[in-house]
Amino acid sequence: HSVIMIYVWVCQWFDNANSDLCTKKKLKEMPTSAFMDSNLLAAIINRSTTCTTFDAYLKRTRFEDKPFRSRRYCKWKVIADNTGQRWLARLIFLLDVWEDVPVLWWDILWIRLRFTCRLRIVVIQNIEAPGIRNLSEPDRLSSYFLAGASAGLAQTPVASPIELAKTRLQLQSTGQGNFQGPMQCLRKIYRQEGYRGVSKGLGITFLREGPSYGVYFVTYEMLTKTSSKQPISTLHMLLAGGFAGVASWVISYPIDVIKSRIQAESGNCYSGVLDCLKKSIRAEGYSCLYRGLNSTILRAFPTNAATFAVVTWTFRLFGEKPNEAPKVENIALRTSMQTKNRTAKGYESFANKWNVLFDGISRGNGFVTPSYSVRFMLPISRLMPDSSACLVHDCRRSGCKHDALKQENTSEDGGERKKKSRNDEGRVEEDEHVDEKKDCNNVKMAINMCTCNLQRVLEPTTSNKKNEKYNTNNQRLIAESGGRCMSTQAMQSLYDFRQNNLLCDAILRLEDGGVFPIHRAILSACSTYFRALFTTTLHSREKTDVLLPGVTSPMMNLLLEYAYLRSIDVNQENVCELLTTADYLSIVGVLDLCCDYLRDNLAPENCIGVMRFARQHFCKKLENDAYRFIVGHFVEVSQRSEEILHLPIEELKPLVGADELNVKSEQTVWELVLKWINHDPESRKDYIVDLMKNIRLGLLDTQFFLENVKDHPYVVGNDACRPIIIETLKFLYDLEMITQKDGEVPTPEIARPRVPHEILFAIGGWSGGSPTNYIETYDTRADRWIPIEETDLTGPRAYHGLAVVGFDIYVIGGFDGVDYFNSCRCFNAVTKVWREVAPMNVRRCYVSVAVLNDLVYAMGGYDGYHRQKTAERYNYETNQWSLIASMNVQRSDASATTLNDKIYITGGFDGHDCMNTAEVYDPSTNQWTMITAMRSRRSGVSCISYHGCVYVIGGFNGISRMCSGEKYKPSTNSWSHIPDMYNPRSNFAIEVIDDMIFAIGGFNGVTTTYQVECYDEKTNEWYEATDMNICRSALSACVIMGLPNVYDYIHKHRERLMEEKRQKLLAHELAMKQEQKDLFCQAAVFD
């Protein structure tokens, strides 16, 4: 019958896990003795309604090779084989009840402890945490099955030894009368067989009880579910309970037979459950598993019918009313009132004394007994939401929130006051309190009214009248999330009250001697810790003097300022201690502010410390942001961070092996590994093997590997490094002879490139004699172009501009072969959705575009009639274009970039000549200024800022396409020459990615091209890169960093990179041979 109690608790726990206990549902504190009395009474009636000798009959039936002729014969046979009927019946009866009662007591204590812990966690975590939402639909039958199975499993450890003793007592005969009682039986079993003997059958008992009680309660729930809110009749309840018991036994009876046989065997006849099952079936057939089932059914029906009936009607005797929402009251006050009423009335029954005693013991040990709203007839119903429960105080609202807090004062004689309040039954009670302060009641009323007024301000308004009321005062301007606001005047007044110790209702004491008077409602509104501390019913009386360990006075001052004024000074000196204290006191707002401060101040020198600090305090988002900063700025971190040298090997290995590590060359990773080992060489040099496995050695330069890795002392002196060196040498050799390999050449792990942190997008352009909307991205690590399917369905564009703000790519102006555009399209690289944004004020083809401080600038261009010198600026927050100062000259087909918070525009075409002029725009003055002219005239030019200079490359000088370039240095206002590209081009795209300038596509004077080349200032040379998938000019490119879905834009099959390279080289060799053959044929024909 403890099973029923645990079942009720589990069902209620499922309900409460899916609701807000603090604001809607409160558990009514019903004395534990109600459960004790109802289940004890059910246990006694249970054993009385079914003759105790039934159990003896069942046991004997299960173990006799020849079944008894009838139940009556078996009954008298059992009694005749023992010393007498009367003492045997008493013994078995008491043992049956004893089998229930101690389990029940254990369950009571266990439930108290579990519920108390659970309640504390729920309150501290503000009830709404997703982690405690175990079942989203507690009314489903699966929930009842789980609750019943949990209850059955919970009572098994205590019930199993008692069932063992009962079985041995029932089966002993007169000649074997060695057991005089249950305890003597268990002691003798323990001495003879040890702990294994006492726990014999425990495992199979678990196997029986889980599904048995699950089916038991599911069946009862199914039979008692009605659409009506009226309670079911007693007959209905009896029949449902009986059939539920029969179903439970039919399911579990074969398991119970095996359990009984194992427990009845005093020797080692059976080695386990399967052994007992096999031997029983081999000796007696399958019928032995159902021997005695008819008698069990006859016993189960009345037994279980009586169980539910007695439990339910006993709840009624203890005052449980059906279909009534539970009321909220203080447990200490309720118990005190109950005790006084019963004493005054002279009503001190056994049950009442039990209630007071047990509840007192519970409070003294920090336990609170949960009570559960039980329907008039089972099954258990869920608590109804109490929408009138006040958020701050344990009271009911009637009209106004503070109405329920009003107290009726009587005369004050001798410093004492009598306070009258109405309890939930409608009776008027009197309670005496000592008057420590003359105006104590007025202070409490003032605080309550202030709190309720503040609560009204924080609540969302529901009518225009309220909106007008709250918006008339222009001082209520501190905005909060969700459209709410606070009155700064009211909060400042409350803060002044606290500083002057006025209207304060609690004191916080710190270990360093700090004493802080506070208003409990204010602190409870911003901290779940204080809400739980001040509103919980776990304490016998209100907490008004609290000691806070581990908190310093400076931190408490800052937190109190935030609690009252929502302002706080977070700086480098206090952020760590402030975050720790805010986390301890569950002040989420301060915790978020500290995390934001640390996130905004991440640097190569502190990022590792921030990551580890965030991990220690479970700030998962901050930890992830710090980790992304580390892998994204790994080169700077490896060079400037001292913290990385103190990382343990367990954290360093996954870091250097991460695919997301942003390194242009694996040489950086190798140098960091050596630096880390050199920090403590004696204890760390043996880790060289584990770290080398995480370095992509195959991507190192061959000469660097042979000179700096292969022959390094740490590697040479460690034999475990030899397989890694051999694998790398083999790969480097295969790389040189790749075209001579037969079959597919896989890419080993040591040569698979990491994931890039920057993605280059090339969009639109002119291809095959017409504009295109083709999009492809460039994976710098794999050196591959990847086509993207999400093209703009509104149509193609060429001679347009691209701008990036966040993860949005803006396509501005352009030409589709017919129309010149002023429209703008926006592509979000995360959602992959295109949308229309506000159009420009002027149509602009051959437009120049730049981005400065998240503002998009569009300059010059051609509208189909005139070359433009106007310029305008787009603000994505307002979705609006606005005109700025015009340039000094007309320009189309020019190029613009940003440097040092200024915009530079170079070259272009004015309608008559290709231009070599350039000018700079200063947004702070809204003024354009001419700078030194370039060395060459350039139209269709591309320019980009790179390493503090403006690089201008390619273009058309009026005669031919150019491959030359030059750079402008603002500090000297002068231009200088840079190396020429391999291929001349104009109207091409340019971008900086991977710290190199990439020139993409364009027109070479004869045709559009797909060729790509890159410039590295460190070597002052151009290099060829992988060609695009299609030829195009008049395209635009942009770079996005830190895409969360970067894997959507990179090469998917990195394990096939070697084979792709082999196929490309083979195709190139074949083309060269074909070209030589054609030349030879032409020469032969000419001869």
From TrEMBL:
Residues annotated as domain BTB:
504-572
Q: How does it sit in the membrane?
A: Multi-pass membrane protein
Q: Where are the Solcar repeats?
A: 139-226, 232-317
Cellular compartment(s): Membrane
The entry's cellular-component GO terms read: membrane
Q: Which domain of life is it from?
A: Eukaryota
**Annotated CDD domains:** BACK_KLHL10
Q: Could you give a GO molecular-function term held by this entry?
A: actin binding
Name of the protein this chain belongs to: Kelch-like protein 10
Q: Where is this region: Disordered?
A: 406-435
Q: Does the keyword tRNA processing apply?
A: no
Q: Which family does it belong to?
A: Belongs to the mitochondrial carrier (TC 2.A.29) family.
| This protein's UniProt keywords | Kelch repeat, Membrane, Repeat, Transmembrane
Lineage, uppermost ranks: Eukaryota, Metazoa, Ecdysozoa, Arthropoda, Hexapoda
